[in-house]
Every structure is written in structure tokens, then in C-alpha cells.
Amino acid sequence: MVEIKEVELKKDTSSIFGQISEYNHEKVVFCHDHDTGLKAIIGIHNTVLGPALGGTRMWSYASDAEALNDVLRLSRGMTYKAAISGLNLGGGKAVIIGDAKKDKSEALMRRYGRFVKNLNGAYITAEDVGTTTKDMEYIKMETDHVAGLPEAMGGSGDPSPVTAYGTYMGMKAAAKKAFGSDSLEGKKISVQGVGHVGGYLVELLAKENAQIFITDIYEDRLREISNKYGAKVVSMDEIYDLDVDIYSPCALGATVNDNTIDRLKCQVIAGCANNQLRDENVHGPALVEKGIIYAPDFLINAGGLINVYSELQGYNRESAYAQTERIYGYTLDIFDLAEKEGMHNQLAAMKMAEKRITSISKIKSKY
Ligand SMILES: NC(=O)c1ccc[n+]([C@@H]2O[C@H](COP(=O)([O-])OP(=O)(O)OC[C@H]3O[C@@H](n4cnc5c(N)ncnc54)[C@H](O)[C@@H]3O)[C@@H](O)[C@H]2O)c1
Hints:
Blueprint: H1 16-22, E1 27-33, E2 38-46, E3 52-59, H2 64-84, E4 90-97, H3 106-118, E5 123-127, H4 133-140, H5 160-179, E6 188-192, H6 196-207, E7 211-215, H7 219-229, E8 232-233, E9 246-249, E10 268-269, H8 280-290, E11 293-294, H9 297-300, H10 303-313, H11 317-325, H12 327-341, H13 345-363
Parallel strand pairs: 3-4, 3-5, 6-7, 6-9, 7-8, 9-10, 10-11
Antiparallel strand pairs: 1-2, 2-4
């Protein structure tokens, strides 16, 4: 039996190296370019299972420290996501500091691509919040270590529909656990963020005749999704107080926190956002206490990674969807493990992922 260390948040996070050692990252690269205004951080968390693959996020962070914290948490999440999904990939992620609508240019993305190139394949990038398949084309001009290229270029295209499908599968598994049936018909479901993934998820929920509530920063997008699928629009703050069966965080992370947890009235949380629990050690157990079934984020939002991984093997859309469908069964397995071991669902999923990494690391030195 492999011994797995409990993941704890350590306290010394005041220095950069303190933060990097907190989650035991292998490498963190700071990228700066005066001419293009590029400021980016690439986090390589763990490469035991394979090269670190994870998207590049472009976001207007309030501070460099916030950007570092985000890339460290996101890249660790990628390690777990790849491991639990049975992929031969490590965990990595990158952030570009800036406003994706204003600060992006071909030169900036290509300069960033050259930093990725310099890592010689230890990190493979892809798209994330604030980046598009077009940006991946620019990166591809500088390095082969990029995935999620447009289908016209032989790539797997936008991963969002596959991510939405996996999230839907995880949500149905959680519904089965909470309500005794995985049917979402008539269920009241709030979706926070109707961007790439959230939009596709709403489509799947509408097909199953769920009652859908949506919120987003962008009013035009809200109108579009509401008109198309008959979803009711609510304000960004109101989403936490709704009397719903399922809350689906599909925007950014850390929305399950000290300020929101007491307001939530749902029985299930299942969404595609990464790092939904602000602090898994605090908010994982708090959800158990409240009787809310939490579907682990990195498990149920793995569809996009599965899709991108398939591109590296020679893309096959059907097999990517078939593999993503298995998220349903994996999610039920995690609920069983959590119950058996008396732990919260996120921790059970982390332990399952760590177990695979530990066992594979042992065979790596043997020929
Ligand atoms: N795209 C993928 O395949 C994929 C895969 C795995 C995980 N994820 C995660 O899923 C989430 C959504 O990804 P996406 O690709 O759909 O991004 P996106 O940028 O297309 O959509 C996010 C949406 O959330 C909205 N938003 C941001 N803050 C909000 C807030 N406070 N309240 C309400 N809405 C808010 C944005 O306006 C945007 O429309 C992210 O956390 C991402 O990391 C995405």
C-alpha cells in the first residue's frame, strides 16, 4: 500500500520561494519582455507522469503575488487532473498578466511562445481563460510544445465542449448521489459564468429540461444564452443565495469560501472552474458538514485535458468523448472512497491521484 502524505497548507507563504515550496513545484519560470510588454509566469508542478501540460491564462491580476498564487494553484491542479484521468502527463500552467481584450498582440504571444520553447518540452501549453485557439497558432509559430490547435491545423480545436460534457457527467453522478437519480429534469441549477464552457454546459442542461439560472460579467453574453436556452438571468451576487438544487461554478476559482458557504442552499456543487474551494482543507470539510455533495473540480473538468491529450496521440474526437464519459463512474468511485475513508470528496480525489503518481514513480527507474 502506498503511503500518501496529507496535503496541508503550510504557513510560510510570505516569500516567493516559500510559496513555491508550499506545493512542492519542480520549476517556476518568470518571463519578461520589454518590447512586447510580456509579463508571464510558467509553473511546472510535477512531471513524474509526463510533460507538464496546462493552459495559459491571460488575466488582469491585481498584483504579481496574486498571479503567482494563481499559477501555483492551477499547475498543481493540473497534476491531479492528469493523474486521476489516467493520462501520461504532468501538471503545469501559465499566466500572462494583462487584459486579454487590450494588451494581447501577435508579438506578445509569439514572444511568450519562445519562453515555452526554451523549456524543451517540459511544459506544453494550451488555451485557457483569456486565450484562444488563434493565440495557440501564434505560439505554434515559435514552438511545437503547444496543443489545442484549430482543427483546420490538425489540432483538437476548442476543448470547451468536451470540458462541458465531462462536467455534465460529473454533475449527473453527484445528482445520483444526492437525489437518488441522475436525471437533471426539473432540477434548479445555477451556472456562474456562461463563457466557453458554461455556455455549452447550459445547452446540455437545457436539453435535459433543467430550470437554469445564469450570471456573468458580460450582459450581451447573458442575453444570448438566456434567449437561446430560456435560462433566467440573476445578478452576480444573487447567485449565492438562490434556492437551487445544484450550484455550478464555471467562472474563476475560490468561489466556495468563508463568505459564500453559509449562503449556499444547494445540495450539490458541480462546475468546471478550477480551484473552486478557496482552501480545500477548510472548505472541503465545511461542505461535508453542510451536507453538500461536492464533485471534485479537477476530476469533472478534465474533459478538455483529455481532448488535448488525444491531440498529442493523433486526434480522435469520438475516443476523447468516450474517455470523458467515464468521469461519471470515476466521480461515483470518489464518493465511495470518501465515504469509506471518512474524508471529504476533494481530499479523496487528491489521494487517488497521488497514489497513481507514487506508484508510477516507482516503476520509472526500472528497465
Ligand atoms: N475551457 C476549458 O476547456 C476548461 C477546462 C478546464 C477548466 N476550465 C475552467 O473553467 C472556467 C471557465 O473556463 P472558460 O474557458 O469557459 O472561460 P471563459 O473566460 O470563456 O468564461 C468564463 C466566464 O466567466 C465570467 N465571469 C468571470 N468572473 C465572473 C464572476 N465573478 N461572476 C460571474 N461570471 C464571471 C466571464 O465573464 C466569462 O464569461 C475557468 O475556471 C477555467 O479555468 C476550462
